[in-house]
Amino acid sequence: MRIRSLAWLLPLLSTSLLREFSPRVLRGVSELILRAAAQRHSIAQARHRSRRGVSERHSQRVLEHLDRRKTQRALTLALRKQVAQYLPHHPVDVALDFHEVPYYGKPIDPKHPQFVKTKEERGTHRAYRYATLSIVVRGFRFTLSVRYLDHRGRLADVLTDAFRDAERAGIQICRVYLDREFAIYDVVAWMRERGYTTIFPLRLGSRQKARFERGQKSYVSEHTLRDSKGKRPPLTFRVHVVVRYQMGKKWNKHGAQYLVYGVLGHVPLEVPHDVPLRRTHDLYRARFGIESSFRIAGQARPRTCSRSVPWRLLYLGVALMLENEWAILRLLYTSEGRQGPSGMVLREELLRFADVLELLLLGINRVLGTLREIGNPKPPPLRLRRWGMVLS
Length: 392
Fold this sequence. Notes:
Number of domains: 2
Radius of gyration: 25 Å
Strand content: 15-25%
Largest sheet: 9 strands, mixed
Distance between the termini: 43 Å
Number of strands: 11
Order of helices and strands: HHHHHEEEEHEHEHEEEHHHEEHH
């Protein structure tokens, strides 16, 4: 596992730093980063627990030399090369989502802060924001693109960058699943112009809820979005209202549940069938695993209190690429052929993400060693003897 991880982390650091440091130093810093990721520690804690390796001060100096654009470009290339040979050749579904890491400090530049304002979470309303594009296949997911964002708007630019990364990776897109935040005029116009089949939940106010939440059967309707500036014509698109009955299994609720989805385009198969009404919710449910993948990646993201944007982007990239490695290992060693639409099944109990991190830590310990002695080299204070403690 250590060798597989170094295979993509070393080129990533070398490209982002343009060989300003020797290969030996970059390899030592890479091993410290992997140890910090496996134990969810900072790089200082990882070095403190290691017998050998690059010093903490030297490793921090290396990370301080990271450039935002070079790191972003190197991370995009590394993700693309990592999953290139494992991507399906047929059209696949993709999901675009935002990933926000809470931040408690001050801005580097008060006029242009490096974070965005969000809803209060974990005691703060500030967060570093990233956009990720992942393929959604039954049983596993790969992250193809991760980009740092210093804004909450300009979602059309986010879509352009993400789909450019998918195109360069050789992905054929079947359907696109978007979050509720993308239900705005600019995004709908962008997706319709390019002809992507898109499913996204609508943000409903009280009037829209009264309009769509009616009846006991699922049905198809229409909805119109208007340009906030009034310069472009209104956009009318199809709406699928899926009605499900709640049996009290979740939040102890009973009665009809209304799920309202906006649907654009057609499915690019042999004939252009519309997205079936009854399958709309089942199709969109595949996107829910992206939220779980963010939580899983958080288990392998090293800790840092640095305000550096490329430093934090590198750490998030390491966590996502370790998760990709986990998905690859599950496909190679825990998959079985089965009859059915997918033709395979993954034995998830055979290889958990915690097992991958443990294997990674075992490999790193062989190289860096483990510091097992903990204590202060100086003698304890005499005050403790006066308190009656026996000092041996």
